[in-house]
Amino acid sequence: MDQETVSTICYLARLEIDKNKSKKIIQDLETIIELIGSLQTIDTSSIDPLYSPLEMTALTHEDIENSDNKKEKFLENAALSNEDYFLVPRVVE
Amino acid sequence: MSWETVIGLETHVQLSTKTKLFSRASTAFGASPNTNVNLIDCGLPGVLPSVNKEAFYKAIRFGMAVNAQINQTSIFDRKNYFYADLPKGYQITQMDLPIVLGGSIDIQLEESVKTINITRAHLEEDAGKSIHDEYDGFSAIDLNRAGTPLLEIVSEPEISNAKEAVAYMKAMHQLVTYLDVSDGNMAQGSLRCDANVSIRKKGVKELGTRTEIKNINSFKFIEKAINFEIKRQIKILEDGEKVTQETRLYDSSKDETRPMRSKEFANDYRYFPEPDLLPVIISDQEIQKIRDEFPELPKEKEARYQRELGLSEYDSQIISSSKSMADFFDASVEKTKNYPLLSNWLIGEISAYLNKEQIEIHESKLTADKVAMLINRIDDQTISGKIGKSIFEEMCLSGCTPDEIIESQGLKQISDDGAIEEIIMTVINENPSQVEAYLGGKDKLFGFFVGQVMKLTEGKANPKAVNSILKEKLK
Lengths: 93, 475
Known about the structure:
The complex is a heterodimer. By secondary structure, chain A is mainly alpha-helical. Chain A has helices spanning 3-12, 22-40, 71-76; strands at residues 60-61, 86-89. Chain A starts with a helix and ends with a strand. The mean pLDDT of chain A is 89.
């Protein structure tokens, strides 16, 4: 774990961290990774992956339309919008 | 230097479900902006997705059609990235356990059939739509499409040139429309693909560095985009330089591909199992039900048309090649007995009209009932084939039935022998010199007499009757 990796992780998560605290953060992350590392020493090759601790299956819905559209409220609560769209700083393609 | 192209395609098929993959909002195309959106689609906190089983059934139907393995236990994963039209900050997709694994599809080349293997096909949700050029300084976001179910079909890198890529997409289009998995409407984005293109020296095993051309949505653009990219990469390699691995966009107005800027940096999607969704289990009974209700595919239709309806191989192939044409034919067959005439009309006049108008048959004013009626009127000699063509034109314009047009324009064929004989006698009496010449051996003049009879009857005389009576009278 180094400063550059931490910067990349922060960028991916869109987080800004206090430069003064970055040393502490690097140390904390290293501790976490070590812990995961110790879990990974266990041989699990003969065990199926557990995708969920709940022994249940996904909630499903019938393919029947039931729109609960609240366009005005959705747009009203957005940081920026007009009568039809959410507006965001221009994304250049 | 001899070069070889390697292409793999990722096809996105929009499934024709009524509701979204994880919510019950409508998937209808063309609704006004942000109206097909509910709490789940716009990613509000505290909501939980539910799974649309119909999307699974459609994906499984596709899997069965390409002889793939169907994973009856299926898991969703999160693909994390930030983009304005992705409200949750992640896309729910399938990474570890896709619903469809393996399989293959046959593609029709000019003189042969090639089998392309399929790596996998997985379910995922579509993103919303960004509009970049309408509001100064802003991108406008419409979330109507967010959450629409997609089946992403990944091919093995076994496609060798742009023509094969087009053939592959055409085969996909035919299959997904036949299976009623998608409406296949490319202009509306229901079928689009990303092409991974790389070049290597002939005989070399390792793949060259690839580029990915995103979001191509027409057969024509697939061919042009790939051909441009092949030329571009070969030039780079021949100049002794290296191809950069990147994502590119095809610009049809300039007929070129160029690098996409937005998603270049730190392409790390950090996939992990979607904690909001439990595994989806498809029971054996559900699988059996899908098998029992499996639709007839083009090859089966083709064989049935030949076996049961006596159509030629050529006619059967053309009619079954498009789902909308085959559906129309199947519906018309219920209403008429003259199958060869019906197929002639479908392949001839009707196809020519649809081509000219650039529409599909279900978008025209023609219905199976009306076309079958037209065939029946020609078959029972109410009208001649020639009059049939002018009635057809009228049907396309007005949407009237053939009987209405025959009635209102007085087009009924004269098949009454007595009436025809009377007209023939008039023609004979008015043209004594031609009669003399004909009897003297000028056989070609027969056509002149037929023409005169048709002129007097405005084309309504039954040609068969005219021929036989004329022959009798001119002995």
